[in-house]
Automatic annotation (TrEMBL):
Domain Peptidase C1A papain C-terminal residues, every copy: 44-278, 339-580
Pfam families tied to this protein: Peptidase_C1
Name assigned to this protein: Peptidase C1A papain C-terminal domain-containing protein
Taxonomy, superkingdom: Eukaryota
Entry keyword annotation includes Amino-acid biosynthesis: no
Lineage, top ranks: Eukaryota, Sar, Alveolata, Ciliophora, Postciliodesmatophora
Family: Belongs to the peptidase C1 family.
Amino acid sequence: MSRFLLQHLLIVLFISSASGCFIKNNDIVPPHSAPETLVEPSSLPSYLFWGNYSGINYLTVSRNQHIPQYCGGCWSFASTSALADRFKILRNATWPDYNIAPQVPISCDYLSFGCNGGDPMTVYKYIYDRGITDETCATYQAKDRDNGLECTRLSRCKTCYSNGKCDIPDTHLVYNVTTYGSAIGETQMLNALQNGPIACAMDATNEFENYTGGIFIPTDHEVVTNHVVELVGYGVENNTKYWIGRNSWGTYWGEKGLFRIIRGKDALAIEEYCAWATPDPVVKQVNKTLVEEKTVAELKILEAFERPEKAGCRVEKSELKLQAEANGYVIEENAAPALPAAWDWRNMSGLNYMSWTRNMNNPQFCGACWAHAATSCIADRINILRNDTVAQISISPQVILNCNAGGNCTSGDPIGVYKFAQQYGLPDDTCQQYLAEPVENATCTARQVCETCIPPPPKEGQTSNCSAITNPPLWYVGSYGFLAGVTKMKQEIYTNGPISCGIYYSKSFENYKGGIFSELTMTTKVNYEVALVGWGVNKAGTEYWIGRNSQGTMWGESGFFRIQMYRDNLGIETDCSWAIPNITRTN
Ligand SMILES: *[C@@H]1O[C@H](CO)[C@@H](O)[C@H](O)[C@H]1NC(C)=O
Ligand SMILES: *[C@@H]1O[C@H](CO)[C@@H](O)[C@H](O)[C@H]1NC(C)=O
Ligand SMILES: *[C@@H]1O[C@H](CO)[C@@H](O)[C@H](O)[C@H]1NC(C)=O
Ligand SMILES: *[C@@H]1O[C@H](CO)[C@@H](O)[C@H](O)[C@H]1NC(C)=O
Ligand SMILES: *[C@@H]1O[C@H](CO)[C@@H](O)[C@H](O)[C@H]1NC(C)=O
Ligand SMILES: *[C@@H]1O[C@H](CO)[C@@H](O)[C@H](O)[C@H]1NC(C)=O
Ligand SMILES: *[C@@H]1O[C@H](CO)[C@@H](O)[C@H](O)[C@H]1NC(C)=O
Ligand SMILES: *[C@@H]1O[C@H](CO)[C@@H](O)[C@H](O)[C@H]1NC(C)=O
Ligand SMILES: *[C@@H]1O[C@H](CO)[C@@H](O)[C@H](O)[C@H]1NC(C)=O
Ligand SMILES: *[C@@H]1O[C@H](CO)[C@@H](O)[C@H](O)[C@H]1NC(C)=O
Ligand SMILES: *[C@@H]1O[C@H](CO)[C@@H](O)[C@H](O)[C@H]1NC(C)=O
Ligand SMILES: *[C@@H]1O[C@H](CO)[C@@H](O)[C@H](O)[C@H]1NC(C)=O
C-alpha cells in the first residue's frame, strides 16, 4: 500500500470520530515557504482591512460551507475565497468579480479529502496544475466524491438544459495562479496579507463557534487544528493586536460572517499554517472540444444528446400587477433629470456595484430567470445604497423558490419577489444555497428560509442533521412596482439602480456571444426575465441597454449583454419592474 493511501486510510479512520475540516497534507511542498517579500512588521501599516482599503471593498461575496448539508469543505472555501479576493485586488475591484468555485477541489482535488477535510495548499497546487472555474460552472452542493459528487468531466464546468441533461458549455473561463506558498508566524502572515487575503488553519472551538462579535480571546488552551479560515486584515484596538478573518459559516455568524481574533499570541493556533497564492491576470477561455480531448480518456462520458431549445421562464401574474397598481406603485415620468449619454453600474468611475453573476441552470435546469433577475436587482441596489461597502450582498433565489414567492422552476413573475420582500424580507444566499431545486413542498418553513447543518457529512442517501436559523438577518424592500418606456427606464436605473425587465427569449438571444444584440422578431411576447444595469452609445451612434442574464459567466459578455435600444430588441422596453430596498439589515 502506498504511503499516500495509508495516510488516507488513517485519516479517514481518524476523522470518522472528529468533525474537523482541516487535514494537513505533508507531501505538499509549495514553491514558496514564505511570502516573496519579507520586511519587519514595524515598517508595515498598523491597520489593513481588504474590506475597506482606502474606502474600497475588495472582498467578494461571503459563503456558507454548511448548507445544503454538512460538508467539511472549509479548506476549499478559505483558499478559493482568498484567491477570489486577490483577483479583485489585482483588478482594482473592477467588474466582474471572479467567484472561484469551492466545489471543484472538493470533488476533484485528490490530495485533500472532500467533505471530510483538507489542506488549503492542495487547492492552490490543484489550480496551478489544472486551472479552476467559477461558481456559475460548478455550484456548491456540499457533496464530494464519496457521497454523490464524484469528479467527472462535468465537475469543472457544466450548464443544464430543459430536457434535464447537462453538458460542458461551448466555452468557459478558466482561472489560474502564477505561484503559491505558505506563511507561518505573525511576521510572515502580516507580509503575506499586504498582497491580499490568506487561508489559515486554526482550532474552531465551541467557544469560537459561539462568537458573536468583538476581539475574540480564547480561554481554552488545548488546541487541535481542525478548521481553515480566510484572513482579510489586521489592526490594533485598545492596545490589543488582532487579525480580521472571514469564516465560511454564513453572514448570520459573527460580525456579518467576519470575526476578529487576538494577534501575536497564536490564539487557536491561527498563526501556524497559512497558504497564499498569486492570481494570474490571464483568464483563459476554454473551448469545450479541448476539454473533451484532454479528459475523455480518464473520465466518464455522458451519452451524447441533442441540445434542446431552452424554455421561457417568465409569466405575468396579472393579480400581482393589479395589486401593485392599486398600491400606487407605478413610476411617473419625472421632470427628467438630465440623463447622461452613458450610465453603467458596473463601472461608476471604476467602481463596480454588481452582486455576483449566477447560473440558474446549475447544478440542474431551473427556469428561475424571474427570481434571479429580481434578487440581483435588490442586491445590486443594496450595494449602491451602501456605497459598495463590505461585504458583498447576495440575496437568496433558492428562498424565492422555497417560498413560492412569485413562481417556481417552470416560470414566475418578479413582482411576486418584490411583494414577498416587502412583506416578509429576504435572507442572504448563505441562508439557502442555490440548488436550482424545484421544491416539492415550497411552503416556506423556517428551514427553507435559513438553515445550518452539523457534522458528520452524510453518506450518500443519508440526510444531514440540519436545523433552522431562527430570526435570520433579512433585507426588506420599501416599495416596488412596474414601468415601461425608455425615459422612465433610464430615470429609474439612473436614480435607484438596476431594474428587471421581461423580454422575448429567442434562439439568437440564447446563442448571443457578444456585441450589441438586435433582432427583428414577429413576436415579442414576454416569456423571459433579465436585469438592466445601464445603457450606452457606440461610435456609430447606436444606443443600447446593458443587461445581466442568469446563465453564468459562459454566456454572452461574462454573463452580461448589450441590446439595441428603441427597436428590434425583443420587447425589452415593454414590461419592467423595480424595488427600493431598505439597507438596514434586520439582526
Ligand atoms: C473605510 O475607511 C475609512 C478610512 O480609510 C473610513 O473613513 C470609513 O468610515 C470606512 N468605511 C466603512 C464603511 O467602514
Ligand atoms: C489597477 O491599477 C493599477 C495602478 O493604478 C494599474 O497599473 C493596473 O493596470 C490596474 N489594473 C486593472 C485591471 O485595471
Ligand atoms: C498556471 O500558471 C503556471 C505559471 O504560469 C503555469 O506553469 C501552469 O501551466 C498554469 N496552469 C494552467 C492549468 O494553465
Ligand atoms: C455555546 O453556546 C451554547 C448555546 O448558547 C452553550 O450551551 C455552550 O455552553 C456554549 N459553549 C461555549 C464553549 O461557550
Ligand atoms: C475599546 O475600548 C472602548 C472604550 O473602552 C470600547 O468602547 C471598545 O468596545 C473597545 N474595543 C474592543 C474591541 O474591545
Ligand atoms: C472550438 O473548437 C472547435 C474545433 O477547433 C472549433 O470548430 C469551434 O469553432 C470552437 N468553438 C468556439 C466557440 O470557439
Ligand atoms: C470605466 O469608466 C471609466 C470612465 O469613468 C473609463 O475610463 C474606463 O475605461 C472604464 N473601464 C472599463 C473597464 O470599461
Ligand atoms: C454613501 O455615500 C453617500 C455620498 O457620499 C453618503 O451620503 C451616504 O451616507 C453613504 N451611505 C452609506 C451607507 O455609507
Ligand atoms: C409552476 O407554477 C405554475 C403556475 O403557477 C403551475 O401551473 C405549475 O404547475 C407549477 N409547476 C410546478 C412544477 O410546480
Ligand atoms: C409534501 O406535503 C405533502 C402534504 O403535506 C406530504 O404528504 C408529502 O410527504 C410532502 N413531500 C415532501 C417531499 O416533503
Ligand atoms: C441533530 O443534532 C442535534 C443537536 O446536536 C441532536 O440533538 C440530534 O439528536 C441530532 N439528530 C440526529 C438525527 O442525529
Ligand atoms: C428600514 O428598516 C428599518 C428597520 O426595520 C426601519 O426602522 C426603517 O423605517 C426602514 N426604512 C425605510 C425607508 O423603510
